[in-house]
């Protein structure tokens, strides 16, 4: 059952906050391996085979910080949230999803809808019940286009989805999608994406990771 979303922003955490490099704490366990195997084709679009595992690792860190959240719901929702990109036209992804008023692009709504279709396809045969699948889809549907999070689990998925962008791997991929150099894209992360984060641990992780990425990529000089 999703946990009610606290009113305070950014949401403070009762648990530990790990701001070390995400490569030090990859996602744990093999219980999600059957889902990974079921969505391999959908991971081959838009860098999902990099984005989704890194986002899952961040989601587990956020669940450590918020032990009251439904950890399994968060993990499965973040694992599947962007698989819908694999069911839409890849040329439209770059042409519409990363230019102009990209947050309102129809293709972003379409990838959310397709992500729910995929969740309903792959989860029940793997033993997940209807109520759980419904909760996963409620998070996937709107994770990019809805302004508000409706539960703590929803907030953690949204933050994990954004946190990967601050890692140097995320900057390398996403700066190209937005046709920005790494320095300009890093500035955008600081100015636009950090204020969108909903939890205090995510803000701390994003800030620490961005500092490391900027130092590594020499963005103060190469701009």
From TrEMBL:
Domain of life: Bacteria
Region (Disordered) residue spans: 1-26
Gene3D superfamilies in alphabetical order: Hypothetical protein af1432
Ranges that cross the membrane: none
Domain HD: residue ranges: 56-163
InterPro entries attached to this UniProt entry: HD_domain
Designated name of the protein: HD domain-containing protein
Species of provenance: Streptomyces hirsutus
Lineage: Bacteria, Bacillati, Actinomycetota, Actinomycetes, Kitasatosporales
């Amino acid at each position: 059952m999703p946990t009610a979303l606290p009113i305070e922003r950014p949401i403070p955490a009762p648990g530990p906050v790990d701001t070390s490099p995400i490569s030090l704490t990859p996602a744990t366990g093999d219980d999600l391996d059957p889902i990974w195997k079921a969505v391999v084709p959908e991971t081959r679009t838009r860098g999902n085979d990099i984005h989704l595992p890194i986002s899952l690792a961040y989601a587990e860190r956020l669940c450590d910080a918020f032990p009251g959240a439904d950890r399994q719901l968060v993990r499965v929702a973040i694992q599947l949230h962007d698989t819908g990109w694999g069911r839409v036209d890849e040329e439209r992804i770059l042409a519409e999803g990363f230019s102009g008023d990209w947050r309102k692009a129809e293709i972003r709504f379409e990838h959310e809808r397709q992500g729910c279709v995929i969740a309903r396809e792959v989860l029940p045969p793997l033993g997940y019940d209807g109520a759980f699948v419904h909760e996963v889809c409620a998070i996937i549907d709107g994770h990019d286009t809805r302004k508000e999070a409706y539960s703590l689990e929803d907030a953690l998925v949204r933050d994990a989805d954004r946190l990967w962008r601050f890692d140097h791997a995320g900057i390398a991929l996403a700066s190209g999608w937005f046709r920005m150099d790494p320095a300009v894209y890093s500035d955008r992360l600081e100015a636009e994406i950090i204020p969108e984060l909903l939890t205090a641990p995510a803000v701390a992780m994003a800030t620490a990771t961005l500092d490391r990425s900027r130092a590594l990529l020499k963005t103060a000089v190469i701009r």
